[in-house]
Amino acid sequence: MKFEYPLLTGTLIKRYKRFLADIHTTAGDITIHCPNTGSMRGCAEPGSPVWFWDSGNPKRKYRHSWELVENSLGHMIGINTHRANHLVREAIENKILKNFEYDVLQTEVIYGEEKSRIDLLLTKGDKKNWIEVKNTSLLEIDEKGNAQGYFPDSVTSRGTKHLRELMLQLEQGDQATLIFCVQHSGIKSVKAAAHLDPLYAKTLSEAAKAGVRLVAAETKISDTEIKIIGELPVILE
What's the average model confidence in pLDDT over 176-182? Predict the structure, then answer.
């Protein structure tokens, strides 16, 4: 997925109010839109190099949008969570992610007892595969001293609800898949962040045992594009 606009560079001053970030550029300090509702734990350190784009739309309150950040270890991170669904769809259509057969691909279909919207629905004959996509960008040192990718980066009741919905689809005879879209060049495996959300970690283990397929998608990130290049291990405890 190539970026629609050329990316500009700056230095992060601070991210605040969830949707805003102040950055320093050679032309001066500006406030830009932050397309990420999560905690951005480990992805928003002041002084970090950032990449952003200019919509060119003077009617937008904040015409610039944040796209990438480089952390202190030199890892590139995609902070735009809205990219994840598109990246996964592109990878399935191009068969970069394997074993996703379909005749029809739909998005944002309402399903389940809790009326969630599924990110992707693949249909082949009378078989359906309900796919939930989760943007993943948290890298921390685990108890063994190893760098480890985690999801979520804060408590997510919504994410736990989605796992319950996927398990219900299995009970109806369909397939269900959870894809962690890893927009972080330093992450080489993914596990549930039990230290941040123990209920999500417990529910993820239950979902895996019930038959929900877990996939972690590895991305390659540059200042011109982000693309999924393969899979990473998902670690269950």
Answer: 99
